[in-house]
Amino acid sequence: MLRKRQHRVFAMILVVLIAIAMVGSGFAVFFGGSGIPAPNQNSATNTNTLADYQAKKTRLATLAEQAKTDTGNVALQTDLGNEYYDAGLEAETVAPSESAENYKHAVEAYQNVLKVNKDPNVMVDMATAAFKSGQNDLAEKTYVEALTIKPDFLNGLVNYGIFLANVKQDLPGAIAQWQKAQNLAQPGTEQDQIKAFISQAQSQLKGGTNSSGGGASNPNPALKNGASTPAPTGK
User: Fold this and answer.
1) pTM of the full predicted structure?
2) Within the chain, where are the H helices?
3) How confident is residue 208, by pLDDT bands cut at 50, 70 and 90?
4) How far apart are CA 223 and CA 202, in angstroms?
């Protein structure tokens, strides 16, 4: 079940970050030519998402109370982390000011899991939640640790590449991660997405680098700070 969720999270991360990047002036060039459609933003969809989000918050309150007294329960803490992660993702659309806080709570729950079980799946989820709440040092440390344990972890390679491109402005480093991921991905949508990331990063590098060395010029400040919603509403 966890692997299926990881697969879903990987796909959502790609779509969400691409859509957000198109709002800013810097990474619009980097991600804009990927050919991956942005999420549907019509009012009916947003209304449904808001209702889902409010229902999730109610469930989360109950789950969080249970988890307070059972921090060593790996299954419970994993569920709590996953619920907070998904709440953060939904909040990016319907309640941006609450998104970072949800991701921070996800990090806390995942940390409880990792005290008992060093699962690379959970580590990458935690690293991504940390990235999406601006805890960039923790995100990088955890991505690296997860990939040390499991070097061929597709989601870890892709998401660490996204982190390197957006936070570190390290396009060569991002390309290296995505090239590893490309060799592991099954032919089809995921492989095509990764190829698009590599192509756009290579084009950006050919077009010029900034003074920090190798990064994209004029990066979107929200993405640079680890936020996945445009400043100042949101990560």
Assistant:
1) 0.72
2) 2-21, 27-32, 43-68, 74-94, 96-116, 120-131, 136-149, 154-166, 171-184, 189-207, 221-224
3) low
4) 19
